[in-house]
UniProtKB/TrEMBL annotation:
Family: Belongs to the MrnC RNase family.
Cross-referenced InterPro entries: Mini3_fam, RNase_III_dom, RNase_III_sf
RNase III domain location: 55-152
Compartment list: Cytoplasm
Gene Ontology biological-process annotations: rRNA processing
Name the record gives this protein: Mini-ribonuclease 3
Keywords, in A-Z order: Cytoplasm, Endonuclease, Hydrolase, Magnesium, Nuclease, Ribosome biogenesis, RNA-binding, rRNA processing, rRNA-binding
Subunit structure, as described in the record: Homodimer.
Cofactor dependence: Mg(2+)
Organism: Paenibacillus protaetiae
Amino acid sequence: MSGNDHKLTQHKASDGEAKRSAASLLPESGVDHAGASPLLFYPPSKQVNLMNPVVLAYVGDAVFELLVRQYLVAGPNHKSHILHKDATAIVSAKAQRAMLERLQPLLTEEEAEIVRRGRNSKSGAPPKNADPADYRQATALECLCGHLFYQGKTERLQELFAAGLPD
């Protein structure tokens, strides 16, 4: 039985058997996650400042996508095809690069350093439809989103997102 099978078995246990919460299935990391986002169900095993920028960008991509979707759903048009079209326009590498350029003057020194780390990370080949420079900048923005998310700075994340939107 693999480790994952064991976890599934734990969740299917009858009332008479010991059930374990999802948190107890995770290894103890010893990392303090005080002040983390309330959506942080599975905290990272490392301190956020020690995490690989590509990993922060991986999580930041999902965080950014969620921000975009919430922003669009808060608007007046809820037709799914229009929501999808509008979201795609905002999450493109080119649009993320433009957003990051608008945000640069607003970033703290720490945030600017996270952006620099994300931009300089080796994240692999960009998609065929993306300019490599745009892709690096988009990765940098996503790295910042992941970093702020893991630090529980959701208000700052929302503030930067709102400031970065085009007029």
